[in-house]
Amino acid sequence: MSTNTNEETDGFESSQSVPVGVKLGSTRTVLRYPDTTGQTQTIRTLTCLATYEDAITGDERVLFGEQAAAEYPDRVEFMLRSGLPEDDERTELARRYFDELVETNGVPQDSTVVYAIPTIDNEAGLRNLSEVIENSAIGTVEMRSYPESLCSAIPALGDGVEAVDEVFVAVNMGSTNLEACAYRRGEQLLPFSTGSVTGNDVDRRIVNNVEEETQGRVHVDLTTAREYKEEHGDFDDFQPFSDVVQQPGGGSHEFTIEDSVMDALNWYLDEAVDRVANEFLPDFANEFMKPYQMALSNPVVVTGGMACLPGLTDEFERRLSAELDREISVVAPPEPDTAAAEGAMRIAERLTGD
Ligand SMILES: Nc1ncnc2c1ncn2[C@@H]1O[C@H](COP(=O)(O)OP(=O)(O)OP(=O)(O)O)[C@@H](O)[C@H]1O
Ligand SMILES: [Mg+2]
Q1: Of 58, 178, 243, 267, which sits most exposed with the smallest number of CB within 10 A?
Q2: Atom 15 of ligand 1: nearest residue by CA position
Q3: Mutation test of ligand 1: which of 265, 308, 316, 338 has the most ligand atoms closer than 8 Å to its C-beta?
Q4: Domain map of the chain by residue range?
Q5: Whose CA is nearest to atom 29 of ligand 1?
Q6: Which value, in Å, is the radius of gyration of the alpha carbons in the chain?
Q7: What's phi and psi for 202, nearest 5 deg?
Q8: Centre of ligand 2 from the C-alpha of residue 241, in Å
Q9: What is the distance between the alpha carbons of residues 116 and 285, in angstroms, rounded to a whole number?
Q10: CA–CA dist 90, 176 (Å, integer)
Q11: Which residues have CB less than 5 Å away from ligand 2 (the ion)?
Q12: H or E element: which one contains 13?
């Protein structure tokens, strides 16, 4: 028996499945999993790729993520720009991107993969997204998908997977969609989503606002607008900031942004409150009176990348309470931009029996 100990231990270890949480998003992709020392790894990159021709061999080469966006702003492809892989071409690009991401980072293949999916009424797009992940090299032990806003709510409501046993409302603030949904022990009640109140809309508004605020002197691109929003947007304590553009005829022009960013963000938050308070919640109250009361006596969870904005949670709480004329409490996960992958990883841990 004693001579076998090592072998048995090895056998035991190799049959263990690594829990991996995946969120393949339209702006960024996030993976979370424990490495061999048990330390949780986070991979977080822009969901994009650019191809170029090798200057020596003439072969087609591919760059991914931040590097692609920085070096090839002229032709970088965000293949999930609209939220999901819409067609075969985009599915193929997403597959290349995801396979490369998994391979370069050495994500364990003997794994239990849980991936977050948006709550959108787009069957073909969701099927394509699943195909990309299900056909990748990882997740040989098991693969499952769960709604993104449920995954993201998990780290907001406890250290384990408490959210799965609760009745609560989640509002997911993403790049391409605003989603609202009630969860009853993991079951989705009345999922609502709209493509007209989004992080991307904020970026577009910032572009227009900057043009107006600078009397037409400055036109920023969408990437710059997104960076202004992510770096300077703040519902608690916004500080005006300056930037410099090169003039076409030479020289540079420095300008200061006072209102462009927060005007766009205030528009966004008002619209989000309006949709939740006047479209989603009334339907929920009508169809599920008791669960509605239960859910609103618990905190509403805001999730998605936009929840990273400082002060957004408190301001959403204030405006939603005012709109509904009752006290609502609102919480967000500690790291909204990686929360979906974290929650997915915790579900995967549960599935592997940890
Ligand atoms: N630190 C940050 N501060 C402010 N905004 C952020 C931050 N990080 C991400 N965002 C914004 O959040 C949005 C992305 O959110 P998320 O990652 O939840 O979207 P997604 O799941 O890819 O999109 P969707 O589900 O809508 O298709 C983008 O508009 C992005 O600019
Ligand atoms: Mg999303």
Answers
A1: 58
A2: 305
A3: 308
A4: 13-157+337-351
A5: 199
A6: 22
A7: -60, -45
A8: 29
A9: 27
A10: 16
A11: 118, 148, 174
A12: helix 5-14
Element (H, E) at 170: strand 167-173
Would you give the DSSP letter of residue 102? H
Asked if residue 13 has pLDDT above 60, the reply is no
User: Ligand 1, closest atom to CA 178?
Assistant: 26
Q: What angle do CA 310, 311, 317 make, to 5 degrees?
A: 145
Query: Per-residue pLDDT for 3 more than 60?
Result: no
Closest CA to 78 of 173, 179, 200: 200
What's phi and psi for 223, nearest 5 deg?
-65, -45
Contact yes or no for 324/338 (Cβ under 8 A)? no
User: The tokens of 46 are what?
Assistant: 């822009």
b/e per residue 231-260 (b: at least 16 CB within 10 A): ebbebeebeeeebeeeeeeeeeeebebeeb
Tell me which residue has tokens 């391409």.
Answer: 176
In angstroms, the CA 277 to CA 102 distance is: 40
pLDDT beyond 60 at 14: no
pLDDT of the residue at 354 = 65
Confidence (pLDDT) at 18: 96
Q: What is the mean pLDDT of residues 5-17?
A: 50
According to CATH, the superfamily of the domain at 13-157+337-351 is ATPase, nucleotide binding domain (3.30.420.40)
**Pocket residues: Cβ below 6 A from ligand 1:** 25-28, 83, 118, 174-177, 199, 226, 229-230, 233, 304-306, 308-309, 337
User: Contact 41/33 with Cβ under 8 angstroms?
Assistant: yes
Q: How far from 251 is each of 210, 212, 215, 241, 248, CA to CA, in Å? A: 20, 22, 18, 20, 8
Q: Kindly give, in sequence order, each residue whose CB lies less than 8 Å from that of residue 205, ignoring residues fewer than 6 positions away.
A: 263, 264, 267, 268
pLDDT (tens digit per residue) in 256-276: 999 999 999 999 999 999 999
